[in-house]
Amino acid sequence: MSSYSERFKSPSYFQEEGHLSDKKMVLSWDCTGDHLGVGNGESMILLDVGDGGMKKSTTVRTDGDISFLDFHPSSSNIFLTSSPKSGKTKLWDTREKSKATWEVENGAVCICARFAPDGNTIATVTEKNELKVIDVKSGKVLRSHKFILEVNEVEWDSSGEFLFICTGQGKLDMLHYETLKSSGVKLCAHPKSCRCITMDSNRKVMATGGYDSSIAIFDVDELICTTAIHQFKSTVERVHLSYNGDLLTAVTQYEKNSLIFDTNSGDVVFEMIHDREPFTARSFAWHPSKIVLAYERKKSGSSGMSVVGIAGLQ
Predict the structure, then answer these.
(1) Strand 53-61's sheet: what is its strand order?
(2) Rounded distance between C-alpha atoms, residue 242 and residue 311, angstroms
(3) Within 13 Å and on the Cβ side, how many CA atoms surround 169?
(4) HSE of 287 in the Cβ direction (CA atoms, 13 Å)?
(5) Residues 156, 180: Cα–Cα separation, whole Å
(6) pLDDT single digits (tens) 25-72
(7) Pick from 298, 306, 294, 297: which is nearest to 46 by CA?
(8) Contact 119/87 with Cβ under 8 angstroms?
(9) Each residue of 161-175: pLDDT tens digit?
(10) In 3-state terms, the chain is what percent helix, strand and coil (to 5)?
(11) 125, containing H or E segment
């Protein structure tokens, strides 16, 4: 991992976009990696990303704050959003800039929404512990299941036949897609509630974050925990893996700096710094095929304004 460490130390590694907002933003790359989606209050802003940096290309008005943003795995025009205010999951097309393709009323705040690997369905989870699977073409709910106990974020396996859901008992419950019932495989991830989950682009490496302030990293094929990271003092709210599963970043509740970790050893590769000062990123998104990391941070001395940056454009 020494090559990663040296690369992050390059003076030109971090580049920031002048677009500012007074709200926290959520980030997601499209499937090509040529565009970065920025969920910003009432809209999704699409940035063209290249060797020359970033520039705004498209704005889609989403009519509500965005808590989750995800692009279709094979179409760069299709993306989904979930809104904490309306409680709705919506599907959008960047070519239709003012109207959603469809929307689904969740009846509660949607805490997670993710496309299946084939892009034909979407899995959502609400704060009322309900899991839904939605058909992408029609927007119809194909199946749903309400859990008695707490559940949080969900992720798909590579086949789309199983889902991994985070539970309040600190476990990852592997569910059958057809029934949304447990397969009987339950992975111990945290001693307290398991909060969030992510996978690399090939769905070979999986990481979870918990209310116990730790991160667990799993080999998906073997279904075993390979590494644990205990660097934090507050809840891990989001975890993000690089496309190859080598590197990891996390958003936590109270930490004052952002770190990049080696998933094999659990060691810190780099502390994120801009203008010689460490900073706290509030959102991350790794490029789908390169060691390039997008982030959002509060701009120093700007009374809550935030800025989007990308590390890795060279």
Answers:
(1) 26-29, 35-40, 43-50, 53-61
(2) 12
(3) 10
(4) 16
(5) 12
(6) 889 999 999 999 988 777 888 888 876 677 777 888 776 778 889 999
(7) 294
(8) no
(9) 999 999 999 999 999
(10) 0, 55, 45
(11) strand 121-126
Cα 103 from chain centroid (whole Å): 21
If one counts every other C-beta atom within 10 angstroms of the C-beta of residue 138, the result is 10
Q: What are phi and psi of 210, to 5 degrees?
A: -135, 175
Radius of gyration for the chain, computed over Cα atoms and rounded to the nearest angstrom = 18
Task: Match 């020494």 to its residue by tokens.
Answer: 2
**CA–CA separation, 118 and 182 (whole Å):** 22
**Separation of alpha carbons 186 and 194, rounded Å:** 12
User: Residue 3: CB partners within 8 Å, gap ≥ 6?
Assistant: none
- Provide the pairing of β-strand 151-156 with 205-210: unpaired
Q: What secondary structure letter does DSSP report for 183?
A: E
pLDDT for 96 equals 83
Residue 126, token pair as written in the block: 């609400």
Walk across the sheet containing 236-241 and list its strands.
236-241, 247-252, 259-262, 268-271
Tokens of 267: 């060691």
Contacts with 222 (C-beta within 8 Å, 6 or more apart), sequence order: none
d(CA 123, CA 277): 39
How many Å apart are CA 297 and CA 157, to the nearest integer? Answer: 31
Rounded-to-integer distance, Cα 182 and Cα 117, Å: 20
Query: Cα(252)–Cα(3) distance, rounded to whole angstroms?
Result: 26
Which residues sit opposite 103 in a β-bridge?
Answer: 90
Strand-pair partners of 146: 130
Residue ranges of alpha helices (H) inside the chain are: 2-8
Helix (H, G, I), strand (E, B) or coil at 3: helix
pLDDT of residue 313: 62
Rounded to whole angstroms, the maximal C-alpha distance in the chain is 52
